[in-house]
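Cross-check.
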Amino acid sequence: MMNNLSKLTLLMSLLTILAVTDGCTSIKQASLEIHYYTIEYDPPLPAKNAQRPYSINIEQFQTSPLYDSNRIVFKNDEYLRDEYVYHKWRAHPGELVSFFLARDFLETGRFKAIFYADAGAHHTHLITGMVEDFYQQAGNAGEAILAVTITLFDNTRRGSGDPVMMQKKYSLDVAVEESGPSGLAKAMSRAMQQLSQDIITDVYDQLTE
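Predicted model, tokenized:
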């Protein structure tokens, strides 16, 4: 049988093990905290142009395999891509870009109706896209690099002609003014705002009555 001294020694050992384990768990939990970022900017004001009598469905865009995740990627050199460990986008780039583009199309009021990723909705035109670049170019604070290719289809031409009305690549480099992922998110938001404006203008010009 154990004497009192042996029991006390065993108890102290168990308490020490529990304390160390708890401390390690706390440190591990703290180190795994992830911060999530998104694009954020004010939507465009309603346009004064005449509204086009068309309904447009904007599909959720695809993303280049280099950036097809919610990881925040930065480029230090050719052939090299790296990523932040505890900082991520709230969604994949294709989801972010197509969602905000659809929101902006709707807010301008330039078209009869705008749908987002709604295959069941009756629409006269369809916009598909591919996010080709979505990363931070390293070097000082760096630049937010955003490149998107879109294709505009006229559904009324399907089966009776070429439905493709326009295919165009948009590419923007915007300076990151603040270091870190939050600075990148702000720069990427400015890039997306400009890209959205350019796409909406081009589509509006294509859809003449």
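The first strand starts at residue 35 and ends at 37. The mean pLDDT is 88. Passed to J.P. for a second look.
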